[in-house]
Amino acid sequence: MTIIEVPPVTQNVIAALADLADCVCNELANSGGGETCWCGLYPGALVSWDYCGECNGGRCGMGYVRLAEVFPYSVFPQQELDLRCTYPLAWTVEVGALRCVPQPADGELLDPVAMADIAVVQALDASALYRAVKCCGTEAAIEVYQPVGPQGGCVGGFWRAYLAVE
Predict the structure, then answer these.
(1) How far is residue 47's CA from residue 138's CA, in Å, rounded to a whole number?
(2) What is the pTM (predicted TM-score) of this model?
(3) Which of 95, 106, 144, 165 lies in the 20 to 30 Å Cα band around 19?
(4) Beta strands 62-75 and 38-42: pairing type?
């Protein structure tokens, strides 16, 4: 494992992101739709759905925290131009979960009971992700939950949240 030296000015941010990812994984496993195949901090502009598939132990899906934007603010969480390098930064994160959707043969829809079960898991995950953002110790403002999919055998959603970490 590579050890990366983190400048002191960003250590709190890295710690907050890591703590949030741990909380997301715990909440999904304990009060969401269950343990996922992969869960953690995810880099980049978009989350790859390649890790959403089934894995051992009957688990399926992924949970993630992704850094989406960073901006200065004088009133949290409203973005503002910083002309003198005096404002703190708000860290926008996407906190999400994707779950597998069974793919029936011949492109038919799943029966209504199976579809309802998938919708219930999505709702449980949305609630678990919300608790992870609001109850894990970092000051956060949160927007609306955004459902995604179904696409490629996956369905889920994410919350966009703003973290005030100095």
Answers:
(1) 23
(2) 0.89
(3) 144
(4) parallel
Asked whether residue 1 is assigned to any structural domain, the reply reads: no
pLDDT tens digit sequence for 37-74: 999 999 999 999 888 887 887 788 999 999 999 999 99
The answer to whether 94 and 159 are in contact (CB under 8 A) is: yes
User: Does the residue 3 lie in any domain?
Assistant: no
| Residue 36 covered by a domain | yes
Structure-token match 């003198």, residue found: 84
Flag whether 2 is in a domain: no
Cross-strand pairs, 93 = 67, 161
CB atoms within 10 A of CB 117: 14
Domain span at 137: 8-164
Single-letter residue type at 31:
S
